[in-house]
Amino acid sequence: MGTCLFTRGRHPRRRPDGALPARATQRSAERLEERRQAAATSEARRAEQIQAIKDFIACAQDAERAAYSRPEAWGGDEDWNSVASDAMTRLWIAERHLVLLSDAELHAPVHAYGRALNQAVWREIGDVEVNEHLEEHKIAFMAAARASLTSP
What we know:
The protein is mostly helical. Helices cover 74% and strands 0% of the residues. It has helices spanning 19-68, 78-101, 104-121, 130-150.
């Protein structure tokens, strides 16, 4: 058997100029950086999702407060109407932001809870108490939000 002309009898990974080991080291460093960036992106997305959930909960609390403080006579308090309208606008914006950032499993519960809050604020719930109307939807939303945060 003759000597390979390319390697001249030396092992290909042991070039005198060190080119192959340097390339392997560079590629290894690139892969490590790619994994680090993927982890950083994932963590940033999770932080955005957590903030969107917190924003939605804060807006839901404002809407619930408006539902509880609604005057008995319809149209009897323009200040309340303005506060309630603003609270519901913020809620719908927060809902859409959360839907944009969250997994599909959270979409239906967040929408259902928002709709239930809307019904409670504008008294589309008949003789049902506000807390009784909201409880099921609130629990479903919180469970779905918790599950979305624990999934990888």
